[in-house]
Structure formats: C-alpha cells, structure tokens
Amino acid sequence: MVELGYRPNKVARALTLQRTNTVGMVIPDVANPFFGELMRGVEEVARGIGCCVLFGNTDNNPVEERRYLTEFSERRVDGLLVVVAAGGDGIVSALPSSVPVVALDRVPEGWSADAVVVDNRHGIEQAVAHLVKLGHRRIGFIGGDQTQSTGRERRSGFEEALARRGLEPAWISEGPFSLDSGHAQADHLFRQPRSRWPTALVAANDLLALGVLAAAREASVAIPDDLSVCGFDDIAYAALAVPPLTSVRQPAREIGAQAARLLFDRIEGRAGPPQTRVVRTTLIVRASTTKVAPTDAGSPATAAGDSSAS
Amino acid sequence: MVELGYRPNKVARALTLQRTNTVGMVIPDVANPFFGELMRGVEEVARGIGCCVLFGNTDNNPVEERRYLTEFSERRVDGLLVVVAAGGDGIVSALPSSVPVVALDRVPEGWSADAVVVDNRHGIEQAVAHLVKLGHRRIGFIGGDQTQSTGRERRSGFEEALARRGLEPAWISEGPFSLDSGHAQADHLFRQPRSRWPTALVAANDLLALGVLAAAREASVAIPDDLSVCGFDDIAYAALAVPPLTSVRQPAREIGAQAARLLFDRIEGRAGPPQTRVVRTTLIVRASTTKVAPTDAGSPATAAGDSSAS
DNA sequence: CTGTTAGCGCTTTCAA
DNA sequence: TTGAAAGCGCTAACAG
C-alpha cells in the first residue's frame, strides 16, 4: 500500500511534534550577492540537519521586516535569522519572544540575543596597516551609511587605526553604501586642491571603492599611482575591477553558517547565555594599492609628531 | 483574552485548509545575482497575496534538486518554482505530480508543464543586428554550456542570425558559463593569426564577455577598437566593466514575477492548458562595441556572396 | 510486539 | 446568533 503514491504529510507532523524543522531568514535584498552568500551558508548547514529555510525580503523596510517576523512566528518556525533593516532598530522591541533569533552582519542598538558579526574594526585596521606599510601617511576614508552598525564601526575603526599610529585622517566623507555615493564622494575630494589629497583611500565597502575607481578614471586620476584605494567586503566583482581592487574580505558564507549553527544549538537548548560571535576578515591585496610615490613619501602634512609643516 | 499574547497557529490552519500558502523555489545558487533577482520577483508577487517562499539551493546538483522537490511536496507547498539544474533533465520524471510546477529560465527536455523563459534567440538576434549595423561582417561567438537550454539556444540563435544575413560565423567556441572560460576561449582566439580574427564577438553571457575583456587587456587587444564585444544578461557588473559592456538584458525580476503569477493562477485553477511564457530581452548599448575599423570594413573574408576571397 | 486512541490548533458543519 | 463536534494526518502513550 505504501508502494503506490504515499507521501508523508509534514505539516501534520509539525503540528503534532510542535516543531516545523523550518527556520525563517529575513534579509534586505536577495539580489545582493553578499546576502546571497549569507543565505548559502545558512542553507548548507540547515540542509545538513534536515531543516528548510523560509525567506523574506525586506528591502530595508522596517515595516516589511516586522511583518515577516510575525508571519514566520505564526508559522511556527523553529528559529529566526535576521539581517536587520537599515533604519530598523525598532525591531528589538517587536521580536516574537517565543522563538530563538540570531542577528547576522548587523546588530541593532539594544540587541540582547545571539548575533554573528564581522570584526569591522579589525578589518579596517588591516587595511590601514597595509597602507601604512606601503608608506602612506595621508590616508582618507570614504564612508558608508552611519545609521547601520557596520557603517559606524568602520568609520570609527578607521579613526582609531590612524590614532593608534599618531596619524590624522586626511579626508573623511560619508554617504549611502552605493556606487554612486562613492563616485560623488570621490568627485568632491577631487575638487579640493591637489596638494591636500590623501595618497590613499579606504572605502567602507567595495561599492564605494568601485565608485571611486570610476570617478578617478573620469578625472584622470591614476589608480594606484596617484592614489591607492582599498575596499571592504571583497565582492566577486572586486577582482574584476580595473585595476583589481585590494579589499578586506568578509567571509559571508561563513557568517551564515556560523549563525545557523548557533541558532540550531539554541533551538536544541545546548547554548548558554546569548553570545555574539565575531568572525575575522582577511585582507586581499590586489593592484589598486601600491607604495606611496616618492614625492609624497616624506610629506609632512599629517605625519605624527612633525609639527614643523602645519 | 486575545489581547495578551495570542498568535494564530498557521500550521494547524494549513492542515485544516489543506493549503499552506507557501511555494517552494529551487535554484542553483542564491549567491548568483541573476537568481537572486528571480527570487525577488517571485517574493514580491508572493508577498502580495500573503504567500511565503521556501527556498532550496541545488548547486546545479540534480540529486539535491530531487531531494528538495520531494521535501517541498511533503511539506505540502501549494506550488513549485524551479530553475532546473544544469544536467538535470531527469527531473521531468521525478516531479511530484500532485503539485503545480513552473520552470524558470531554463526548460528541460520533455517539459510539459508551465514555464517562463527568455527569448534567447531573439536576444542574440538583437546583438547581431546591432553589430551588423555598426558595419561588422566578421562576427564570432564565445559560447556557454551546451547542456543547458540557454546555452544551446544562444548558440543556435547566433548561427541563425548570421545565416539570415548570409554571413558565416567567423569564430565559434564554447565552454562553461564562467569568467575563466571566457578568458580561455579568448586566449585561444588570440593565438590565431590576426588576419583571421573577427571584428566583433558575441558572448553567450556576461561572465564570458568579462573574461574576454580581461584576456584582451592582457593581450593588449583594444576593446572596442580592435574588437567589439557584446555580452548577455546585463548583470550589474556589466555597467562597471572597463569598457562598460554592451549587453542583452534579461529582465530577471520580471521573469520571476511572471512565473509566480502563472503559478498562482494555476493554483487557483484559473489557468488553461500548460503554457510557456516568453519574455523579451533588451539590448543595452555601452562602450564595448563600436563601428568596425575602416580597414576591416570591406574585408571579404566571410561576407555574403563574396566568394572571391575564400 | 502490534493495535488503538488521544490530541496538536484550526475551520467548517451542524445543532441548539 | 452562538456553541459543540468532527476531522485534517500525524506521533506518542497506552492497552491488548
């Protein structure tokens, strides 16, 4: 009798067992490869334990985010994975308390549950260390969205990394995490007198850095000879850029996988107090950064302890 | 009583109603922005009608594909959306017959259910028409995976588009749909005597075209002056390439949305016999294609009706 | 060891 | 109009 066409009904099973073997994942944008990689990481570990993932796209809209969170909780998912929407710190109060949640990539103000994030400060430190080793002293920063923890941490990480070396930022600006924003910020910089330009720029993500590259091409600024540029994320396109972009790699898939593992531990009850796991970045050196030009090398503008020039 | 903390249980509801308000979507790779866009399209229309999407990543592995398909059907999804895995034509026989399915982007041999695909032949025709209008007569093709319908259709579309104009392919090669493959195919071409090179190349997708661009840069072949290059897909990166890539745009999100609408119509019973919807491509002209160089313009090598040269 | 039954939380039908 | 009961397909507890 089983032979001809019987299929177990997992929804009945879920009702009985009070367990759906499903997790909900809500992210800002599936079409963004970074979030896509996060999902891959999640999917791989979920599949390994026979769990499926329900997915919701928020487009960074906090109301869609809430909607999905309550929808998923009504569907009795066993756990929730969420990449918090940009301005959506309000989520903290709206979380269904009955189900384990872990935050990925960004953690909102006042978050008290599990989280898996990248060490943004350390990543920026790697970028700055690399540039300093190449002889750069006048280093600027092309910043991202300051309403997100990632944007804030990278910016303050930059200031700290310089301060640690007795240097001062040669340039700081900010805008959305987008190509156009990078382009516009670079244009703004290029309009300053050339003598005040940094010799190297750290961008808060690769999109911004790519925007800088495009603006530089239009303004006939040679990268890396006139200006070294370092990105953050190491998206697939970074390697294809002209010149190939030096970037701080975020192990997106690993973040997803860790978050999923943490979530399942919590679901099974074998996870202590809420923890936030931080995964490390890696600096990928390519051709967009190079030694500072000899003429710039000794420039005293912002060098530590060299007050004779300012 | 309802006031304090009651959440309806949708799994019980689903059991009773025999309807989960869930669709399953299985794709090769979420981290690929093209599939990500498909998902966005699906998600947008699904959300509009209160439906959620369960997601499965197959990595182009037919066995994972089957696994997900049966898993989803046991979970009693109301419908299935599938981007068939590369070598996975076997899927046709393995499909759960009880649930509506629509194929996206690729349709396997012997598929008899609904499908939404792009008009690959027409897309290639647009590329060829564009190049011919620029004066090109010696046009080559950098091909993709011939085990996929997309790869096959683009290649045969290319041959037909040339034949329609009395031209013959000046070059045809093939390989996987990847950057490295495009690079390798271009290297191979560049090793031929320069007199035999095409003046323009159509690539079966943007990754291949980007690989050609990289190989050309290394071989000091000027794009587009020595060689025009046209891609297919118009991925986000096409616009950022150096030079920006002329490409045939696939409206990925629209494909996803159409597929979802078709699926819901079928679920509701308001859809006639199985149909395959084909959505049109758009040519996006950028800087990687240009008029044929004067010296090449009159070249007789493969011009129609000009037998004096061959 | 096999077979029966209660109950998961909902909707729908039928009775009061 | 309101209330009780049956049943969706499963698992677990219990009885034979």
Tell me about this structure.
The structure is a homodimer of 310-residue chains. Chain A has 310 residues and is an alpha/beta fold. Chain A folds into two domains: 10-117 and 251-279, Response regulator (Rossmann fold); 120-250 and 284-309, Rossmann fold. The first copy, chain A, has ten helices and twelve strands. A six-stranded parallel sheet of chain A has the order 2-1-3-4-5-11, sandwiched between helices. A six-stranded mixed sheet of chain A has the order 7-6-8-9-10-12, sandwiched between helices. In chain A, strand 3, helix 4 and strand 4 form a beta-alpha-beta unit. The model of chain A is unreliable at 298-310 (pLDDT under 50). At the A-B interface, helix 1, helix 2, strand 2, helix 3 and helix 8 of A face helix 1, helix 2, strand 2, helix 3 and helix 8 of B. The first copy, chain A, binds a DNA duplex (16 and 16 nucleotides) through residues 8-18.
Gyration radius over CA of chain A: 23 Å
Largest sheet properties of chain A: 6 strands, parallel
Strand element count of chain A: 12
Arrangement of strands in the largest sheet of chain A: 2-1-3-4-5-11
- Share in β-strands of chain A: 15-25%
Determine the mean pLDDT of chain A.
92
Give the total of domains of chain A. 2
List the total number of helices of chain A. Answer: 10
| SSE succession of chain A | HEHEHEHEEHEHEHEHEEHEEH
Q: Which residues of chain A sit in consecutive blocks of at least 5 with pLDDT less than 50?
A: 298-310
Under CATH, the homologous superfamily of the largest domain in chain A reads Response regulator
- The CATH topology assignment of the largest domain in chain A is Rossmann fold
Give the overall shape of chain A.
elongated
Q: Which chain pair shows the most residues in contact?
A: A-B, 48 and 48 residues
Helix content of chain A: 25-40%
- The CATH class assignment of the largest domain in chain A is Alpha Beta
Would you tell me the structural class of the helices and strands of chain A? alpha/beta
What is the straight-line distance between the termini of chain A? 89 Å
